[in-house]
Write a structure and sequence with these properties.
22% strand, globular
Length: 605
Amino acid sequence: CLFSCFLWWNEAKMERISSSKALLLLLCYVAMVACTCDLTGVNLSGAEFGSGDIPGAIFHNYVWGCLFSCFLWWNEAKMERISSSKALLLLLCYVAMVACTCDLTGVNLSGAEFGSGDIPGAIFHNYVWDGPKDAQYFVNKGMNYYRVPFLWERLQTVAGGALEEKELKFMFTLVNFLTEQNNMYVMLDPHNYGRGFGGKIGQSATSITLYSDFWYKLALEFKNNTKVIFGLMNEPNGQDVHIWRNAAQRAIYAIRFAGASNLITVPGVDWTGAHSWMEQNAAVMNVIDDPADNYIYEVHQYLDIDSSGTHNTCVSADVGWKALVNFTSWARKLGKKAILGEFGGGPDPLCGAALNNMLGYMDNNTDVWMGWTYWSGGPWWGDWYFSNLTPNSTGQDRPQMKYVQPHISSSTPKPTPHTPGKGSYTPPQNVKTQKTIYSNGKTQNGFVDYSWAHHDLCNTSVVRPGSGDSCSLSFDLSSYGALWFQCAGCLNVSSWFSLSFWYNPGNSSGVDFGLFMVNTTGNSKVSSHVNLDLPAYSASPIITNQWVYISVPLGWFNQTVVYNGFQLQGNKPGDVPLAYLSDVELVAYPDQYTMNDGGIHIPIV
């Protein structure tokens, strides 16, 4: 028993200890108790560093040694005999390594997003769906989490139409192999960069309504498989962060209304980069409402000079983990978790060190980091792609695998930060949590009409059917005219989720205007505003002489200011057609109004 342990020890070349080998070491330990000193070991130093910087930053001023010290000690061991304490220490290190890794660790299985210039394209010619044989290598490596990119227009070839059965079959084949046969987790990732059908979501004919429709229908397909995670969108970019946040919010409500309580990942704009999150997303994307309280944030972080992942060289060994620090602190303050959906690097040792250090940082901050998926794997990358993790043409591991392997989770993941007692969203019946500002010809709840636009508080020619009202508010915003509803310190936006109203464009197809918050009583001094692209906030398409429900989230206004009213002001100097409003309200929580989806009603507020 003793000499066999010596031989096994000297020939071991792995960077991670499997459970069976750790058990063997324990058995060896029992055999060797009488052969060695009782206590023999090594100092695992690091957590006492940086005594001049208290508390300091992990990996900057100090480091805990539970993970990396074990690896170093293991790889550098040259002894000819295993002491009893070192055998025990290896076992303890094994236990520590299980506890120190993120719950979800895996890879992107790429292919179904290829051929974006050929929609829908031909399977195996323009694109490919990964199958069980493509995933098996990573399953054998112990990876338990797979991000599956695909194109929205390929799964739903007609905007607002049915999902394509052929594409769903390919998707289900891979998902079922991973989740049902191998007990793994899968993220479904529409790899569209915040776009669909040729336009930016909410800033083109590709409306937020159509985007929500897609997620509603996809959620119906997978709501009974809780190992499927819904990644709302890959790397939105070139978009207004407020409009993107509204689109993400609508998609969340659509998923919950479909009856799905699955985990959802929420990205930001600017390619959802961790390095730029504080500048581009932090002040807006912190306001997310999920009735199931089951969402996390998704960020990406590459290691090259512009964080794009398009260069095969890495900036430094520290570039990755340092880029995560500010985002990690932001998420921790919110009490939210996150996933690193994409990262990667070249095959050289510097990139390897950067990969190892970044994943190590995440391992030491698992209160925030739930996991990661390396970019990328899949059958079509080939040897030419520097960040490919699929085995090479001779079946050998890529160089990056030896840096990723030590951080792969060995535990059965429990990734869902789900609040007991909450589930899919069902609108309450006859419940209104709101404050009425205007209804049926009158302002209410302390609001006073200070408008300078041409308007009539009680126009009887156009009245919203089914409202029970006898009149509506008619107005035109010509020459920068404005509707101004004033109050005295009665508009605390932190208490309200959205400003909502019914809108009728009259004989036009809709007029854009700005929403301005007023912070001084008696004049029009404005503290902040947002331009309203009405189709981005509407529950259904804006059509001439038809009423549509508009919901404007208030999360991007300063939550610490109590405002004294707001203005809806025109954006053009010339004449603007007459339009109509009904039931202007502050809404505290999604409750009653819905988005029309072919007879299916999805809450949007």
